[in-house]
Amino acid sequence: MKYENGYVDSFRRLIQCPTVTESGHEYFEAFHKVLDEEFPHVAATCEKIELGRDVLLYKWTGKDSARPVVLMAHQDVVPAVGGDWKYDPFSATVEDGKVYGRGAMDCKNTLFGTIQAVDELIEEGFVPEQDVYLSYSDCEETSGPGVELARDWFKAQGIKPCIVIDEGGAIIRKFMKNMTKDACMVGILEKGYADVKFIARGKGGHSSQPPKNTPIARLGGFINYCEKHTIFKSKMSAPSKAMIKGLGDVMTQPLKGLAKLFGGSCLLAKLAPKIVPSYGMAMYQTTMVFTMMQGATAPNVIPQEAWVNANLRFSPNDTSEKCFKKLRKIAKKFDLDMEVTKSREASPMVDFTSKEYKIFTEAVKKTYPDVAIVPYLMFGGTDCRTMQEIASTAIRCTPCKLSTAQLGGMHASNESVDISSLGETVECFKNFLKMYK
Ligand SMILES: [Zn+2]
User: Fold this and answer.
1) Contact 47, 56 (CB under 8 A)
2) 313-327 residue pLDDT tens
3) Ligand 1: distance of its center to the CA of 204 in Å?
């Protein structure tokens, strides 16, 4: 049995495949070969739906097709160049009960947890009540087309998944000493996203005879204004409320009492800018940060055009149009043009009362009786939002225990996962599949 060695050999082989996003397809083909060898029951029993190179989609036929389940993950990983890696990031070195390597927790742990669960259940002779699909894109990290191919296939077949589970939250080990329990952060919603370019135009010219108010000076004034003013109001949204309430439940006093008293109130959102560190404000408001800029192409040229890119993450309380309207007004003051290059709204929120959400959280509780369930507003993006377009419930959570140090390994050096956590993740997905009807 693989479980006896904590699945470690099998998981290490997944990490040892350097499936760096946008690298040659031969790396992904080698990875698929490893999947076939390590999960022979999936290879023999599940139907592999051919949708081209960017996505692996398996179908495990259940007793019924009315309420299908889709378990998602991605095959690709971000590059592992630079940083202070203790070990070669693709060696999958085992040390102190952990496997170190790129992709260990983003998200080959999710891929392993789901495919191993299905493989074991097939071996045990279990037949699921409903059809189960495994969907693994090879280009999530670059927002590539893999997940869209899978979504379009479901649409073309007229299949409407009842529940989709993808990466997102995890089970976070007590990260504050006031916490009484570990918390399973169940991603229930993703913030919206936009890239907006602000462009300053002018006559240009030689830098030896500069006029006033050149494009870069106007951009500078605009950036400074945006940094100093509160452009987007902080408000309590339903998911932030649920998150504070959930976290309050696992705190000791007085935090427990405070969360109960203020958790759901707008007062907390109003006070937040004064008491919450700036990064924590992402929970209460739409955020904006400047990420790219360009001026002239030579040091002695006044540019005719200069631009800066702002990256926005919309709170579920805001619409993109409402935010753009505010920005357009400010841009006008500084004589800037505004161009939206990418935009999407916050995703719909998962219905806590749905049968699917309940089954997922019951499976977590069954696997981890001492873990609290905390709904979670996700600031970053996942492939899940694309599949959510056709699914009634979309949960972003890998039921895998991670420490705060391990969370810091995401897209950084020394990414790792505990061997014991891998076993529990498989167990949790097995429980979910057995409980799902
Ligand atoms: Zn990921």
Assistant:
1) no
2) 999 989 999 999 999
3) 44
59-86 mean pLDDT? 95
Give the mean pLDDT of 375-385: 89
Owner of token pair 């209460």: 284
The letter for the amino acid at 122 is I
Please check whether the domain covering 193-232+286-344 is classified as CATH 1.10.10.10.
no
Q: For position 178, what pLDDT does the model report?
A: 80
Q: Would you mind telling me the total number of residues written for the chain in this entry? A: 437
Distance in Å, CA 265 to ligand 1 centroid: 33
Of 194, 214, 195, 193, which Cα lies nearest the Cα of 203? 214
Distance from Cα 29 to the centre of ligand 1, integer Å? 20
Domain ranges of the chain: 2-169+348-435, 193-232+286-344
Q: Please name the residue that has the structure tokens 């009807």.
A: 437
The SS3 assignment for 375 reads strand
Q: Ligand 1: distance of its center to the CA of 376 in Å?
A: 16
Res 284: pLDDT: 83
pLDDT class for 1, splitting at 50, 70, 90? Answer: very low
Average pLDDT over the chain, rounded to an integer = 92
Round to whole Å and give the CA distance between 336 and 350.
39
Select the more confidently predicted residue: 43 or 260. 43
Is residue 355 predicted with pLDDT exceeding 80? yes
Above 70 in pLDDT, residue 273? no
Task: Please give the distance, rounded to the nearest whole angstrom, from the Cα atom of residue 187 to the centre of ligand 1.
Answer: 13
Q: Across-strand partners of 137?
A: 55, 74
CATH superfamily of this structure's domain 2-169+348-435:
Zn peptidases (3.40.630.10)
Rounded to whole angstroms, how far apart are CA atoms 239 and 255?
19
C-alpha 52/C-alpha 139 separation (Å) is 13
Residue 296 to residue 273: CA distance in whole angstroms: 37
Rounded distance from Cα 382 to ligand 1 centre (Å): 7
The owner of tokens 């479901």 is 154
Task: Give the helix/strand (H/E) hosting 248.
Answer: helix 238-249
CA distance 192 to 147: 18
